[in-house]
From TrEMBL:
Pfam families: CbiA, GATase_3
Domain annotation CobQ/CobB/MinD/ParA nucleotide binding: ranges: 5-235
Source organism: Rhodococcus artemisiae
Family to which this protein belongs: Belongs to the CobB/CobQ family. CobQ subfamily.
Residue stretches making up the CobB/CobQ-like glutamine amidotransferase domain: 258-430
Keyword terms: Cobalamin biosynthesis, Glutamine amidotransferase
Name listed for the protein in its UniProt record: Cobyric acid synthase
Active site (UniProt): C337 (nucleophile), H424
Source domain of life: Bacteria
HAMAP family cross-referenced by the UniProt entry: CobQ
Function: Catalyzes amidations at positions B, D, E, and G on adenosylcobyrinic A,C-diamide. NH(2) groups are provided by glutamine, and one molecule of ATP is hydrogenolyzed for each amidation.
Pathway, per record: Cofactor biosynthesis; adenosylcobalamin biosynthesis
């Protein structure tokens, strides 16, 4: 049977996903079979994998999908057994082992998850039987003491698997030493024994300046800082966390084409625009105000987990009028999944998939399309062609789209300069992305450089850079030794004891 390790954090967006991705590739380089694992995601950024037994599509968190690529493993739903997709501030849709499994209300979050814990532990045990090492990612903070009694994502998982745990802290936010010490101190004695060291992430400057703090933290806790990872602007990857989106680089290319991505409140699968951010003649910016559409050549409405609510949000800010005016003035518009549905004539939810049975709304009316939400979720990996180029992507949606007077486009529709697709990830295909950019550039009277970027190669290069950073700045040998060593470590006396 294989072993495992838990990468926990002091906060959300401390860099756990990035660290796990880098560790997965670094260990794979050493000839180990590696699997990523996150017991529970809370994210609307997901991906479709294929169930090996049935051949059907299953849904997993995007971060675990990219981590499986880094580990050179086939992505499986078992790598992310529980996925919570927020539909509102108090209600999440639940996905278990890749398939819909009802909803979870805020009041049930603490005590109503026993069945989810059982599914998560069974999935972890399955992976550990088949891989040399399972690299687990925690969620939020390891010291969510209000949730500890029912936790199966952080120290609850560590206790189940007897996993040595490292705690990652983001020094760029400030207070990293206090947050690391406090995280450890708030845990009970048994949990503390599993915390074996710390990793400081996103450091800028001379590491020598940290030495007094590193020494003091070791003296206070008996645990070393295993690495200080440098801050790198271009190391963001397929994130699961919307917190990371606010620091995502809005690519400032030469500006031949300007793309405005409308950041609806419940945005999902925002990685759909990643490939555009790499194009040298494309400037991508994220906007939430109608005035920010001025000067844009293309407006993109991304996917959303709450189509009707986010459509109302567009109207409340005047973005609906701004998008329609942009299209009527000859500007290009691309809607993806929920964003595509908003571009249509009508959206109805007779079954209450989004929480309000019988709800309906008029869309922006730019495409002759009508959408009705059904209880069954579509999970597919479609392929085909568009604009003379091969195309592929993935579908994750409840909406059933009926297209009227419009041309077909990637499982969706097109009318002139307005495009709508149900396929997430289609722009990651180099040939399709180039064909689409050339078409919209020509319509705008522009010439752009295209065909110089391979998105798949760029992604793998970023993974390799992460692994290089892990090898250079993290004591991987010490990490591996944790899998067999079990020293007795000091217990801190926190305020709860």
């Amino acid at each position: 049977m294989g072993t495992g390790i838990l990468v926990a954090g002091t906060t959300s967006d401390a860099g756990k996903s990035v660290v796990v991705t880098g560790i997965c590739r670094a260990l794979s380089r050493r000839g180990l079979t590696v699997a990523p694992f996150k017991a529970q995601n809370m994210s609307n950024n997901s991906m479709v994998a294929v169930d090996a037994a049935t051949g059907d599509g299953v849904e997993i968190g995007r971060a675990q999908w990219i981590q499986s690529v880094a580990a050179r493993a086939v992505p499986e739903s078992v790598m992310n057994p529980v996925l919570l997709k927020p539909g509102s501030d108090r209600r999440s849709h639940v996905v278990v082992r890749g398939l819909p499994a009802g909803t979870l209300e805020a009041g049930e979050f603490a005590g109503g998850r026993k069945h989810l814990a059982e599914a998560a532990f069974a999935a972890f045990d399955d992976l550990r039987r088949r891989f040399d090492i399972v690299v687990c990612e925690g969620a939020g903070s390891a010291a969510e003491i209000n949730l500890r009694a029912h936790d199966y994502v952080n120290m609850g998982l560590a206790r189940h698997g007897e996993l040595p745990t490292i705690v990652v802290g983001d020094i760029d936010r400030g207070g990293v030493f206090a947050s690391m010490y406090g995280t450890l101190a708030l845990l009970d004695a048994a949990d503390q024994q599993l915390i074996r060291g710390f990793v400081i992430n996103k450091f800028r400057g001379d590491v020598g300046l940290l030495k007094p703090g590193l020494d003091s933290l070791y003296e206070l806790t008996g645990r070393p800082v295993l690495g200080v990872l440098p801050w790198q602007r271009d190391l963001w990857l397929d994130s699961e966390d919307s917190l990371a989106l606010t620091s995502r680089p809005a690519h400032d290319g030469d500006g031949a084409l300007t793309i405005a991505v409308v950041m609806v409140p419940r945005v999902s699968n925002f990685t759909d625009v990643d490939a555009l951010c790499l194009e040298p003649d494309v400037r991508v910016r994220f906007v939430d105000d109608p005035r920010a559409l001025a000067g844009a050549d293309i407006v993109i409405l991304p996917g959303t987990r709450a189509t009707l609510a986010d459509l109302e949000w567009l109207r409340s800010r005047g973005l609906d009028v701004a998008i329609v005016d942009h299209a009527r003035a000859g500007g290009a518009v691309l809607g993806i999944c929920g964003g595509f549905q908003m571009l249509g004539c009508e959206i109805s939810d007779p079954h209450g998939v989004e929480g309000h049975p019988g709800a309906s709304a008029q869309g922006l009316g730019l495409l002759d399309v009508r959408t009705e939400f059904g209880p069954d979720k579509v999970l597919r990996l479609p392929s085909g062609a568009a604009l003379g180029a091969p195309a592929s992507g993935y579908e994750i949606h409840h909406g059933r789209v009926e297209v009227g007077e419009a041309d077909e486009f990637l499982g969706g529709a097109r009318s002139g300069n307005v495009f709508g697709t149900m396929w997430h990830g289609s722009l990651e295909g180099d040939e399709l992305r180039v064909a689409w950019l050339r078409e919209v550039a020509a319509a705008a009277g522009r010439e752009i450089r295209t065909g110089t970027v391979s998105f798949a190669s760029a992604r793998d290069e970023r993974i390799e850079l992460l692994a290089d950073m892990i090898d250079e700045h993290l004591d991987v040998d010490a990490l591996l030794s944790m899998l067999t060593d079990a020293p007795v470590l000091p217990t801190l006396s926190g305020t709860l004891r």
